[in-house]
Amino acid sequence: MPTLVELYRAEIPFVNTSVVVNGAFLKQRPDAVENVLKSLIEAQAFIASPNNKAAVIQTVMHHMQITDSGLAEEGYQDLMFGIEKKPYPSADSLRNVQRIMALLNPKVSNVRVEEIIDGRFIRKLDENGFIDSAYGGSKK
């Protein structure tokens, strides 16, 4: 299977950042979904900041038990490809995941991806300036 970097370079849409919840949870706890998304965005913004590169590499080395700093640096560079500043849901990306999953379970092909995507949380966080602010900018 290709790496995320290879998919990115080949311009093949693929899901990098997502939160998956069932409909009942989404309906009952939209605040929790929004708060998890905020936390993910803040974490990604921390990772993406050049000022935090050393801390991120050290954390990766520690938690993945890597002693080779060159390998950790390579992993960090790969990680940077996967960060989507504004991770709006993409039907094309989800369809590519669906194709891969269908190899293991053909029933997955019956799912209409447009029916399971809900971009309102990311849109809200983008429109109110939260995402830009997390990355150290201001809403344009």
Summarize the structure.
The chain is an all-alpha fold. The protein has one domain (4-9, 22-134). It is built from 8 helices and no strands.
Radius of gyration using CA atoms only: 17 Å
Give me the number of helical elements.
8
Q: What is the domain tally?
A: 1
Low-confidence residue ranges: none
Q: How many individual β-strands? A: 0
The helix fraction, in percent, is: 55-70%
Q: Give the SSE order as H and E letters.
A: HHHHHHHH
Overall morphology: globular
Mean pLDDT: 88
| Amino-to-carboxy terminus distance | 39 Å
What structural class results from the helix and strand content?
A: mainly alpha
Please give a structural write-up.
The mean pLDDT is about 90. The protein is an all-alpha fold. It is globular. The termini are far apart. Helix 4 crosses helix 5. Helices cover about 60% and strands about 0% of the residues. It has one domain. It contains eight helices and no strands.
Write the layout of secondary structure elements.
Blueprint: H1 4-9, H2 23-28, H3 30-48, H4 53-63, H5 69-82, H6 91-102, H7 120-127, H8 130-134
Tags for this entry?
140 residues; 8 helices; mainly alpha
